[in-house]
Amino acid sequence: MMMEAGLVFDGLLCLGLLWLAWQVVISPGQFRATVLFMVFGLLMAACWARLGTPDLALAEAAIGSGITGALLLNACKASYTQSQPASETPPGKLYRGACVVLCLLLSAGLAWLMLPMPGTGGPTADAVTTAQADHFLGNPVTSVLLDYRAYDTLLEMVVLLLAIMGARILIHQTHLPSLHPPRQSDPPMVAPLVAAATPLMLLTAFYLFWAGSHSPGGAFQAGALLGALGVMYRLTGRMAARDHASPLIRLLLIVGLGLFSLFAVWGLWIDGMPLSYPAVETLAYGLVLGIEFALMISIALTLMLMFSATPGLAMTRQPGEGGNQS
């Protein structure tokens, strides 16, 4: 009976994902498509959880749906602010038909590539499983991201840095008006909600960072949660935009990639192989924690600056806290 209920639930999840994906493609408005995309991300997180991959579920909920949804909503607001359309024109039938054909071809190609693949096992999976038994990290996902596949993780940080650099160039060239002007006053419940959410989000983010070495979590999930906290502070006027990034902001933006790159050079110098960990497990574990912490800070700040669409940010003081701005 429980198995039948699980199959019914999984079937409803699959149907919900297909329906939401179709609605995102055919949606006549940007805002509606963005909201549906965020709901799609939440259902996808539930699918990853059903497949027994909590790391991917956390990443999808925090990054795929949460912070990416906030960035898309920001883009919608920027397009309305810049062009101020009276009403949105829905995509034409030819455009929607082309999107449908492209999605079907992409789905068929992915199915053709994945169906012949073995469901479990295989030489690579067996090798990783064998190596994981003696690895100093208890979480296999973190082991892959920071050891077996560390080059890929390093390049992901390069992509993030290039993204924020591209955003900086666009900000200077387009001269967008302020997307989040200072608030004159807060609604009655904003201050207590922010006060209650801040310690909870901070504790959760640092728990995800700390737990990433032995259980689901890690720098990307923790960084996305800290970035969401920064988005909340930006929207409520507790964080103000700055036209120029301070030296501290610039340092924190590159500290993750910089520390990771220094570790690669250090491994090349010591062992002749970049991104190789020392034989002493205590030292190797400390290196992982240091790299993960630096990655978390850089990821969070990158997401905050991209949402704010400004080069820099600074904390502000609210009325009653003594002074106007720090």
TrEMBL record:
PANTHER family: NA(+)/H(+) ANTIPORTER SUBUNIT B, NA(+)_H(+) ANTIPORTER SUBUNIT B. Residues 16-75 form the MrpA C-terminal/MbhD domain. Residues 194-305 form the Na+/H+ antiporter MnhB subunit-related protein domain. The chain crosses the membrane at residues 6-26, 33-51, 57-73, 94-115, 153-171, 191-212, 218-236, 248-270, 282-307. Belongs to the CPA3 antiporters (TC 2.A.63) subunit B family. It comes from Natronospira proteinivora. It is found in: Cell membrane. Keywords: Cell membrane, Membrane, Transmembrane, Transmembrane helix. It is a multi-pass membrane protein. Its main location: membrane. This is Multisubunit Na+/H+ antiporter MnhB subunit.
